[in-house]
Design a protein that fits this description.
This protein has three helices and no strands. The chain is mainly alpha-helical and 112 residues long. Helix 1 packs parallel to helix 3 and helix 2 packs antiparallel against helix 3. The protein starts with a helix and ends with a helix.
Length: 112
């Protein structure tokens, strides 16, 4: 496989993993938020749970920024593939699909 196409495949898979990570951390924030009500009468546990929620939200923020960078990187790689006249319609379709999925995940996250 051509190195440029191999990089396209790698970057596509990296973005796919980032989308899954975002979903996982968003779900974690929701779960930890729901647990907070269990500790209403315990100030120490409430404080600890708030810290867990804060850390999870920070991870979501980091993943969002990473995804934006990864989308740009994958788009640049697609442009490189086109400029070099390489063609692998399956890889290119998968890359475009992952870009759409990532943008949809970002849009869903920012709408919340």
């Amino acid at each position: 496989m051509d190195p440029v196409l191999r990089q396209l495949n790698i970057k596509t898979n990296v973005l796919r993993r980032a989308v899954k990570e975002l979903a996982s951390y968003v779900k974690e924030v929701e779960i930890e938020q729901s647990r907070l009500s269990q500790y209403e009468n315990d100030a120490v546990r409430t404080r600890q749970q708030m810290q867990v929620i804060h850390e999870s939200r920070e991870m979501v923020s980091q993943i969002v920024h990473q995804m934006e960078d990864k989308i740009a990187s994958l788009e640049a790689q697609l442009k490189t593939v086109a400029e070099e006249g390489l063609s692998d319609e399956g890889l290119q379709a998968a890359a475009n699909s992952e870009i759409e999925n990532a943008r949809a995940a970002l849009a869903e996250h920012t709408a919340e």
